[in-house]
Amino acid sequence: MPGIDNDPTPTLAHGTLPYPEVFQVIDVNENESRPIRPLLPQRCSPPSYSSYSKSTFSQQSTEYDSCYDQDGLKETKHQIEGTPKKVLQTGWSRFFQSWLVHTPAVLSTVAIVYIGSAQLFWFPEQGPRIGENDFSPSTIINLLQVAAKIHEIMMVLSLSSIVLAIYRRQLIGDGVRLGFLTAGYRVGDLGYILSSPFWRQGLDRTRPWSPEVLLCSLFVFATIMSATVGPASAVLLTPSLDWFDFAPGTAFSNMRSPLIYKRDRDHVWDSLMRVDNSSNQAASCLTPHGLYEADCPARGFRELDQWVRQWRATNLTSPILFQSVASDIGRRLKPLTDEERSVVLTTTPSDFLLNSIGFFQNYIAAADVGAVSGSPGSGKFRYRLNTTGATVTGNPFSAQLFQPLVQSKCQIYDKADFMARDEVAYPTDRLNCMGNNDCESSCASPRRISPRYSRFNERRIDNDVTNYLVDVDNSTVVYLSGQISNLQDDRQEDKVYLCSAVASWMPANYTFDPVKSNVLKSTLWNDTSMLEAGGDRSATGTIVSFTKPWLRLLSPSIDQTKSHEWSALDALTSHFKGITNKPKHPADHVTPPTPKDDDAAKEILLATAIGAYLTEALARTSTTGITVVKLASTNTTLSYARLDYQRQRAINNITVFNTTHLQNDATGEHIAGDLAKFNADYFERSLPVALVAERYGYGTGKPRKTLHFAQAMLAIYLGAVVLYAAAMAAGYVFARGRVLGVAAWSDLQDLLLLAIQTPPPGGDFAGATSSRVWEKIVRVRADDCDRVRLVMDCDALAATRPLGWTAQERYY
Questions:
Q1: Rounded to whole angstroms, how far apart are CA atoms 238 and 242?
Q2: 698 and 745 together in one domain
Q3: What residues contact 148, with CB distance under 8 A and at least 6 apart?
Q4: Is 49 helix (H, G, I), strand (E, B) or coil?
Q5: What is the pLDDT of residue 583?
Q6: Is the pLDDT of residue 791 over 60?
Q7: Is residue 801 within 8 Å of 52, Cβ to Cβ?
Q8: Does residue 647 or residue 28 have the better pLDDT?
Q9: Residue 227 above 80 pLDDT?
Q10: Is the model's pLDDT at 613 over the cut of 90?
Q11: pLDDT (tens digit, 9 = 90+) per residue, 197-219?
Q12: Is residue 197 in a domain?
């Protein structure tokens, strides 16, 4: 260089500034050239951020008042290439630019959370029809998944923007660790979280609330969220197959819900079973006609008889299907053994309710009752009907629905052992009386039988059974006894059985899906609900009492040609003839509940048959009412449809004829009274069957675990954005003048351009040789020529100044 021989001043390394306290020098008289390297202390404290200014910097180094070019010649600021730029922002523009990223993400997230949480029906299971075009569900779902992916990208950008904004403010302030230098641009990079620079950056874990620990925690949080918000968005936005409510008031818009069963609601599920003396019930039900008449409790005998006949194949564990004769709907009678109590539970919906819902389903298909009409046939959507039975105080059109539940228990004795006893008690232990005092008293002191004075004392008696018995009228415990004969010659295996039963009306609701199944399903259908209802002594069921005349209706005479009158119970129990025979083949064994006690299996069989027959008899009560729906009502007219008629004859219009009478326009019949009295007698005192309809198809908002997870993830994201916005607002209000926005280095490439101006730590050009290098702190500062630099060493820190607070300065 010119003048070097005459200049005793040491020469500086190429491209460095003349700061003699910081750099090693080269003696020009020496022949070898050595690289200039800063003398780095182990730790240093930066100058006070709040009090630093250009004047204080100038006082520290008068030689830094001007800048040097590459040849060591001084140059002024206007000679530096490029145009100075604003690095910092303080105006409202910084908020506007920042929230350009967050606003679309936040608004779309709120919309998706609402869509995914509200139970919305989108389209039927076969897909939507838009204009003249039919679209498959898969096409719509694929499009929604694309939308969910776009939403995921917006949320990740929003999270990255938060991390980057805080990271850049930390970079121009107290600085970040070298191992964290690129973290602001790597949100979502799981590999970086597992890398050595991240784990070896030397955070002070004893200060969990320090800015650098909080910034690292925010980065980890944002990375985890970026991996989960995508699936969460797809779960909320993508519809799934399920049942959804109709729009309010549209399902039955052309009728006045509910369905009405015209029978006194207080006597539909009567707690006392007695003969209806107002009809010829007793005379007809005790004859073979009792197996066919609708109001006879033995009406279900034929189906039960066929079911019991197959006990060797089924062990009487399969349900029995009873089909409605007026509509395509059925109900199942289900037996279930409570193994813990050795009690058989049987239940089934009431027959009148089955027919009422079946009539209504036929009416939906034939008439326009609202949006639900014609759904299965038209291909629009599939629907189902649900009852919502519950008594609401002050609402005459609300009532709880019930169904019978019978507990039955039998005990078998060898006849010889039985006849040797003085008295034998009927088995009533473990029967649940649900708090009924009469039942509990009867179970504590059950009916007893004296074998020597009983019919079983006859030597050659064949199969025999008593009728269902009660000690006195209005008793709650029903008894029955009988004998099963051995078909072999020695008759040594004859058995005597004693059975007891307790019946109750249990609250239940029902569902009917005419497309998938024609069976009316009950909430008491599954095993768990049956065991809970039958075993809970605090259950809300009503114990049923019986009279002797009504119980006699269960055993009508079906064959009078035999030596003695042959009843329905005789026929039913006769199928167990030979059950006590020694099996000639292993398949003849009755499957026992325990390997060693075959009598226990026989007791379960008998209890199942006897309990099922009593359950079906209770289900056949209250079948003489009619089913109607109210269509319209005004002060002068009332219109209703009688559903047991065809549609053409079903509509009845009741109008005011004069001051004392009404007229049925369909029949011309005159009815005494006014419209209010007719409405009260015909509708308000009858049994309401409240129904709601649901449609099957694709929609969102049905509760499930994945939905709750997705809601939680997006709620956390929204909470993070709100917390960030609150922190920014608080900083603006309570710390006016603080630089809140950093405009530069929004991309990693910008930071790389800045990093090129800063040499890496010594010996680390090919990669870090020690993990401790990641502990160094890196800051962004400016030199005297307003050139921005990455500063890592303490000496370089002393030779530079912080960026200005006013955001008016421009930097190169």
A1: 13
A2: no
A3: 112, 230, 233, 234, 237, 238
A4: coil
A5: 52
A6: yes
A7: yes
A8: 647
A9: yes
A10: yes
A11: 888 776 776 777 778 888 888 99
A12: yes
Would strands 382-387 and 510-512 be described as parallel, antiparallel, or unpaired?
A: antiparallel
Number of domains in the chain: 3
Say if residue 412 is in the same domain as residue 559: yes
The first and second tokens of residue 20, run together, are: 């003699």
Q: How much is the average pLDDT of 744-759?
A: 77
Q: Are residues 457 and 569 in the same domain?
A: yes
Residue 611 to residue 554: CA distance in whole angstroms? 12
pLDDT > 90: what percent of the chain?
Answer: 34
Do 556 and 413 fall into the same domain?
yes
Q: In angstroms, what CA-CA distances link 54 with 39, 62, 69, 321, 544? A: 25, 12, 21, 95, 98
454 burial type by CB count under 10 A (0-12 exposed, 13-18 middle, 19+ buried): middle
| Mean predicted lDDT score pLDDT of the chain | 80
Dig out the tokens for 721 from the structure: 């954005």
Instruction: Please tell me whether residues 97 and 20 are part of one structural domain.
Output: no
Contacts of 300 (CB under 8 A, 6+ apart): 322, 351, 616, 617, 619, 620
pTM, whole model, 2 decimals? 0.75
Asked if omega into 451 is within 30° of 0 (cis), the reply is: no
For residue 412, give its domain range.
268-621+690-702
Domain match, 598 and 722 both: no
Whether residue 769 is contained in a domain is answered as: yes
Measured distance CA(322)–CA(332) in Å, rounded: 6
Residue 35 belongs to some domain of the structure: yes
Q: Are 408 and 611 in contact (CB under 8 A)?
A: yes
pLDDT digits (tens, 9 = 90+) for 253-287: 888 878 999 998 888 999 999 998 767 777 888 88
Residues 505-555 pLDDT 10s: 999 999 999 888 889 999 998 999 999 988 887 778 899 999 999 999 998
Domain boundary among the residues 702, 726, 743 is at 702
- Tell me, what's the pLDDT at 767? 60
Residue 599 Rama label (left phi>0; alpha psi -120 to 50; beta)? alpha
DSSP 323: E
Q: How far, in Å, CA of 515 to CA of 375, rounded?
A: 10
Cα first-last separation, the chain: 28
- The distance of Cα 323 from the centroid of its chain, to the nearest Å, equals 33
With respect to residue 656, please indicate whether it lies within any of the assigned structural domains. no
- pLDDT band at residue 578, thresholds of 50, 70 and 90? low
Is 43's pLDDT higher than 70? no
Are 205 and 276 in the same domain? no
Q: Does residue 67 have a pLDDT over 70?
A: no
**Structural domain ending residue among the three candidates 759, 774, 789:** 774
Go through 27-36 and write b for each residue having 16 or more CB atoms within 10 A of its CB, e for each that does not: eeeeeeeeeb
Bridge partners, 88 (sequence order): 742
Same domain? For 61 and 116 the reply is no
